[in-house]
Amino acid sequence: MHVPSRQFVLIDHSIEDAAGHHLEYARRVLGAAKAEGFRTVLAVNRRARRLDCPEADAVFKSFSQTCWEMHAQPVHRTLVGFALRRGSMTADPLKVIRFATELASLVAEAGLTEADIVFVPTLGGPEALAIAAYSTSEGAQPLHWHLLFRRDVAPCASLTKPRETIARWCIRSALDRAARQFRAGVRYLYTDTEELTQRYNSLCTGSFQTLPIPIDERLGLKRPHGGIGPLVVSYVGDMRDEKGIDLLPGIIESVRRAGHDKARVLFRIQGNLPVTGATSKTRHVKEALQGASQSGVELVDGPLSSDAYMDQMLHSDVVLIPYSPIHYAARSSGVFVEAVAAGIPTVHPRASWMGRNAMDQQGFGYSTPSDIAEGLNDIIVNYPRYEAASRRHIPRWREWHSANRLISLLRANEKS
Fold it and tell me: What's the CA gap between 70 and 88, in Å, rounded?
């Protein structure tokens, strides 16, 4: 019996359950690594309940805080750090030390060595500092770290945008300190969009490359609508403010006023609130949508299992992505990637990475939230044209955004 000589370790401390794209992302990457002959290891949050991840040969519940919790610290601390230019105040030192200690325990438990690949697809400045702290600790293994940064960063400092400028300073200071402190091992740095790579490279804290966004191969099972039954307009993912959840009731009402009743258009909305960060506004919107169940609105409570999520995607005819262009100017959207890979028309912000990657007639890019209902109505009226345009781009998109290609890029970097 062949025993894999190398391990592929995916660390995502934000995985607590099946919510969001984190577990789905991990499964696709680990599946591709397993196919390449690696022994696969998944390291998640300690609060994780039962996880469905057959692609992992071993699962370790190693980490006490999610990425969002790692980044949380008193606002005054960040402001003082920025005012005094004290990079040490960009992250909570106790959280950094705790994460470094948890990394050391994982390395020992999983028996990691420099022959293995360690991939961290969800991190920011605090985690980079913790990895650097681990690398300087006694007995640290000289591991090969592949670090994927997906959080947005402002393209430049601006006096007119103080919040974005302070956030840019924080990540730049943290990455600069992490680079200077790192000792044992090798670091490879990535983002998952070309725009984000340019922005991170402008920080001058290391050389970043762009990775593909791995898609589920089952998206190839999507069939054309065929003109039978209502068009299904889906909202997929957590109900978050920056994802425009508060716009949904108005959009639904506008579509109904345009004459598209529930026999023509069905709205299917994934209704799970995020584990952290749910606001009173999102809760009120969810209550309003629950009250609209008799008017052609289905609320699918989550988090969804992998199979349930894929079933919703495969039975969607339009994917509604009313995200804030401020939050998604350069960062990726897994929902958008998968909709395009399945040939499903989308409604998305024009001034975003999604808008710049949408092909002609593939969907509708809105400039302001008030445009969304108008664009959605146009897709409904002219659906065969939009669907045909969307399906033309499936082959190129699926080839580019594959988990196999991601693994190949990671391995190629280690050989260069």
Answer: 15
